[in-house]
């Protein structure tokens, strides 16, 4: 029975994505975040997050803070303690940094200067809900696969900042193949990305001429993804076919077993 089951599934592939988690109800802490977002203009906020396992060096955090401030764009930054490395991009070292307060991660006076323009959240934020908010207009991302899909399905342009593993491939897909992202001239893991380049990338996806083209491309992908997942769409039909074949196969196995 096992061998027949393997032969059934071995060479059958069905396109059923993109698959992302659904929106969830917000708790009171998240509610404060969304009250702030509700006050911001449409597509004006940059969301910054490097995933559950990604951290930056202290030097890189300082440069990123300066870049965000110099861009004069609104932002939400999910902040984790910096790594002890001098380079960029550690994995699962969050909380191992030498600094012991969030204020010490940033340039002097940064928290006072950003005022109502920037919002810092420690360790975790409801990413899907943030990316789906109409005030969000850009995403500085490590390009993990979940984050890549969540950016596309919500129509949000990306600053691709890969740290490790398959993220470089995902960044290349977003920038070179799909044209919905920009990325630093050097890999972040090979050195520190400077504040001037960070400012330039933020402005490229928000206010420069190129921003309109990038935004239009990612919105087309958003609509294509929604269409494929809706009833009658290609992914919907493929997944329905998988379910039907599995059901028929299961009934056949029950008959043979009896």
TrEMBL record:
Alphabetized, the UniProt keywords read: Glycosyltransferase, Transferase
The record's similarity note reads: Belongs to the UDP-glycosyltransferase family.
Coiled-coil boundaries: none
Q: Which domain of life is it from?
A: Eukaryota
What EC number(s) would the UniProt record show? 2.4.1.115
Molecular function GO labels: anthocyanidin 3-O-glucosyltransferase activity
Q: What is this protein called?
A: anthocyanidin 3-O-glucosyltransferase
> Which InterPro entries has this protein been placed in?
UDP_glucos_trans, UDP_glycos_trans_CS
């Amino acid at each position: 029975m096992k061998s027949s089951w393997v032969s059934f599934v071995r060479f059958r592939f069905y396109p059923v994505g993109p698959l992302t988690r659904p929106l969830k109800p917000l708790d009171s802490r998240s509610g404060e975040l969304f009250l702030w977002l509700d006050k911001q203009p449409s597509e004006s906020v940059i969301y910054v997050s490097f995933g559950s396992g990604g951290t930056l060096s202290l030097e890189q955090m300082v440069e990123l803070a300066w870049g965000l401030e110099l861009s004069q764009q609104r932002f939400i930054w999910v902040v984790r303690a910096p790594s002890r490395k001098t380079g960029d991009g550690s994995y699962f070292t969050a909380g191992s940094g030498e600094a012991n307060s969030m204020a010490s991660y940033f340039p002097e006076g940064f928290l006072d200067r950003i005022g109502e323009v920037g919002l810092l959240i420690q360790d975790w934020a409801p990413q899907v809900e943030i990316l789906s908010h109409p005030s969000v207009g850009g995403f500085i991302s490590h390009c993990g696969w979940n984050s890549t899909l969540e950016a596309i399905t919500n129509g949000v342009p990306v600053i691709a900042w890969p740290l490790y593993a398959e993220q470089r491939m995902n960044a290349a897909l977003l920038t070179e193949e799909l044209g919905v992202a920009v990325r630093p001239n050097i890999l972040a893991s090979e050195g520190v990305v400077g504040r001037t380049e960070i400012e330039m990338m933020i402005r490229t996806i928000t206010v420069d001429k190129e921003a309109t083209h990038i935004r239009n491309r990612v919105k087309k992908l958003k609509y294509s993804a929604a269409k494929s997942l809706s009833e009658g769409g290609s992914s919907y039909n493929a997944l329905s076919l998988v379910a039907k074949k599995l059901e028929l196969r299961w009934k056949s196995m029950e008959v043979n077993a009896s």
